[in-house]
Amino acid sequence: MLSIINSCCCLGMETHDVRVEVDVSRGLPAFNIVGLPDTAVREAAERVRGAIRNAGFEFPIKRITVNLAPADLRKEGSLFDLPIAVGILSATGQLPYRKIPQHFYVGELSLDGTICPVPGILSMAGSIAQEHPDSIFIVPHSNLEEAALIKGIKAKGVGHLKDIISYLKDEIELTAAADLPEFKLEPSRTVKQYDFADVKGQHKAKRALEIAAAGGHNILLIGPPGTGKTLLARCLPSILPPLSWDECLEVTRIYSIAGLLPKDHPVITERPFRTPHHSASAVSIIGGGRIPRPGEVSFATHGVLFLDELPEFHRDVLEALRQPLEEGVVTVTRASGAFTFPARFILAASMNPCPCGYYGDHFKECTCTPYQIQRYRSRVSGPILDRIDLHVEVPRIELKDLKNDTEEESSKEIEKRVIKAWERQKKRFLNSGINNNAEMQNHQLRKYCPLDKNVQELLYQAFHKLNLSMRAYDRIIKIARTIADLSGSDTIEEMHIAEAIQYRTLDRSLW
């Protein structure tokens, strides 16, 4: 007997339909799974056998062949357990085949028949809702809230193998996604652990971080140890606007595919803040593997990627950041194909000015030789430095600043200005395919950032005196556009360009 079950799987960010073909025939007892399965898929034979028996059904002592079609598509994970079990029960006559073709099935089976959650449900639900709108998506009950995030999806949750059998026999009805309360994105924000009100002084760095948040610009903080670089960077998410619903779905989809979605919350509503250690490999940062998965640059999408002690990261890791910093996506190519992951994030990085950390410090003398300083700084290449919009010096604060009882501006107040700047950009870039000033291309710069004669003259002088690249030239205009948005100006004035230029001169004075 032959039974064909509909299923699907994720490769990268894409979802592919999979036909689970189960053939039960006479012959020596065997259980073979073909169709490029990985180890987890091949081990489904033992899980399915135990689940069927412990659920009270008969496991056939016959030759069982399972083909996962298309056969040239590599399959991985435990999500095919449920469709394989349904196929065996259908092929042996223990289950009517009438309703089976109307459904798509995914789920992992435990030995007692319980159906366990699997990753990637949000991506699969979106694909099924779009390509198979009349089909019903059967998912583990723990994944039903996640599937319900897709509007129009016909999804039903199942908790045990007995339940899906009873459902297909029309004995019971399963909980449907439509029966769940609609998820609402609350406008209120949770209390942040880090707040700019807790940072004494460092007003220039705070201003630069406000500009970075308002325009989506990358920022590098340079200063001696203990000046608050890490604390300042950790405060950056507290001034970013709340995620929109589309952004929530995109971030949630990435975490769902990687299996990192919190079990108690089906959707990520806070902007990510990722802080990988400097010993991390290029694969963990960029993404990859035998079957490529998202890396830290993708997990930081619509949030912040913070690289503390930037020169300590491996050279290949830093150089691999060029594409995501420039294009907002990262493409990982393997023999099995090319996989593209979103990587639109704000890069916040920090570093010391020299190996000992005290070059240029007015309170402690630097003990490094010029060669050591040059070698340390050369770990961050020019192309990477050129892609970082804002370079900010974070000096040591004096004791009088710590004793000052003046109340510092809170993140909530700064966030209000940032949100207003984002609203101006949203209105400006409506239907243009970009979200903020940092994403503007050359033709958009000409359209949205016209400069009068005096402003152009100031910018040309800075270009020649500082030996700036064309990329740095464009980024100065983008920064100036963000500064103008923060001040509520429709045009870029000389003072906006002047302030933007100072954030590109730090690398020239220190490097």
Structural class, from secondary structure content? alpha/beta
Total of helices: 22
Query: What profile does the largest beta sheet have?
Result: 5 strands, parallel
Helix content percent band: 25-40%
* Shape estimate: elongated
Q: Are there runs of 5+ residues with pLDDT below 50, and where?
A: none
- Assign the CATH class of the largest domain: Alpha Beta
The name of the CATH superfamily of the largest domain reads: P-loop containing nucleotide triphosphate hydrolases
The CATH architecture of the largest domain is 3-Layer(aba) Sandwich
Looking at the structure, the CATH topology of the largest domain is Rossmann fold
Mean pLDDT over the full residue set = 91
How much is the radius of gyration in Å?
Answer: 28 Å
Overall tally of domains: 3
Question: Beta fraction of the residues?
Answer: 15-25%
Distance between the termini: 73 Å
Strand order of the largest sheet: 12-15-18-11-19
Number of strands: 19
Summarize the structure.
The protein has 22 helices and 19 strands.
